[in-house]
Design a protein that fits this description.
With about 110 residues, the protein is mainly α. The chain has a domain of about 80 residues: DnaA protein, C-terminal DNA-binding domain (Chromosomal Replication Initiator Protein Dnaa, Chain: A, Orthogonal Bundle), CATH 1.10.1750. About 55% of the residues lie in helices and about 0% in strands. The protein is built from seven helices and no strands. Helix 3 runs antiparallel to helix 5, helix 5 crosses helix 7 and helix 6 packs across helix 7. The longest helix has 17 residues. The radius of gyration is 20 Å and the shape is elongated.
Length: about 110
């Protein structure tokens, strides 16, 4: 028995894959914008009294953890960066970034973009 015809509607998975394979103009224009995280890391580090290298290391001092939490909230929640990209930048897991970004908002976050 022959299979049923495939549902060919915009938005279905094979439809999107086909657009990418063909190199359609709209598909090529949609790129994920990732903001440069370096300036934000330097700004957070300067205001919180933590060096950028310390922020990106595995140090677990309270001051560094607070600065890292502010950085994650700014980078993920306010700037819209993917948590995986922020995790790679910081050298921590994606789950750690998600937890920090979606934890209770700190009032100091208003100082950052």
């Amino acid at each position: 028995m022959p299979r049923q015809p495939r549902l060919d509607a915009p938005g279905t998975l094979h439809h999107i894959i086909g657009r990418g394979n063909r190199g359609d103009q709209n598909f090529q224009e949609r790129k994920c914008e990732v903001w440069d995280l370096g300036p934000l890391a330097r700004r957070v580090g300067k205001r919180e009294g933590v060096g950028e290298l310390e922020l990106r290391s595995g140090v677990r001092r309270e001051r560094v953890l607070r600065a890292r939490r502010l950085f994650c909230q700014g980078a993920v929640r306010r700037m819209g960066n993917p948590a995986a990209e922020v995790g790679r930048f910081l050298g921590v897991t994606t789950w750690a970034v998600v937890r920090a970004a979606h934890s209770e908002g700190l009032p100091e976050i208003e100082k950052y973009p």
